[in-house]
Structures are given as structure tokens and as C-alpha cells.
Specification:
8 helices, four-stranded mixed beta sheet, 4 strands, alpha+beta, Glutaredoxin, globular
Amino acid sequence: MALILHFHPLASFCWKVLIALYENETPFEPVIVDLGDEKSRAAFLKLSPHGKFPLLQDTAHNRLLPESAIIIDYLGQYFPGRVSFIPADRDRAREARLADQFYDSYVHEQMQKIVADKIRPEGSKDPYGVQQARDTLAVSYRMIDDDMRDKPWAAGDAFTLGDCAAFPALFYANKVEPFAGKYQHAARYLERLSQRPSIKRVLSEARPYMPMFPFYRPGED
């Protein structure tokens, strides 16, 4: 098979790429990376010295693609499907890319700072950094709620790269800094995302690993 995706089912940035692959039913070989397993870790570090995933391997073109947004862009160019994640119209494309950057930088990364602090050993916690992240999320939630007041998807009427980024960011952020009861438009957007078959599949595959998430509560996805 030409495409091999190195990933972990619980990793939020991996979800972005999985959503894109499942939206277009793009064939690929999944390789789950277990950084806690010596053999799996060693094999992956040969491909990705920093140990960051997702990583897409295109054996047909002899290419390794890191970074979720770059991978999705690459899929659109070389393995296109019914969903175009980067619109052909340049203005709409810019909106999709802006949404992607916004959710990655101002929601996703802030959530990850809080999660990372949760699992740090005592004596190395960063309460100031965590509060900064929560403050940034509060601003982001207000912006999202206003932005999603009168449109179905991040960049307008079509599902794009921005929505691939939005779901994992909002799903996990809602676990660490809940917004569902405060921002109805943002909450409805997350619910719309959750109903897409591609995203239901991602959640189903992640479910067995959810107890590993530091903010996991039994009975929740």
C-alpha cells in the first residue's frame, strides 16, 4: 500500500489526519506507535528523530511527511477525494488555513499545556503557565462562539482543513476546561462535528485508549 500512517489513536494531532483520511475513504496502512515499547520506539525514531507523530509515509513517491496540516495538504494534492480540505478559491482557502492555525495555536496547544502539566512530577509543575493557557482558552472560546453563530463549519458552508483541526482541539479542550454549558454556538459546532461518520470512527478507535488520558472520566468518550 502506498500510504502508511504512523500514529497513536489517542493523539489529538493524529486525529486531524485520520479525519481527513476517513472523510475521503483514502486507503492507508495504519501503524500504531507505542513510544513506551522499546522496539516500536526505536523503529519510529529512525523515521522521525524527534519522535513526533503523525507521520505519513508515501512509499510510491519515497516521501515522509510530518505535521498534520502539511499531511492533509499533501493528501489533497496527490490523493484527492470528494472532500477538498483546501478550497480552490484563494479567499476560502485562506479562511480554512486561518481556522486551522487558530485551532492549533489558541485551542489545541493551550489544551496540551494543561494536560502536560497534569502528568508532570511534583516539584516541576507550572501553575502560572497553566493559568495562562486557561486564560487563552477563555478568550478563544468567546471568539469561537461568536464565529460559529451563523455558519455550519469553520470556513463557511464546506467542511475543510479548519474543521479537521477544530474537532480534536475542541473535544479535548472541553475535557480540561469545559465550555459546553457556557458557549452554545461553540458547543453546537462540536456536536455537529461529532456526528460526522469520519469523526465517529476516530472516536470509536480511540475509546479503548481513553483511560490513558489524564482528564478521563469513566462513562465519557
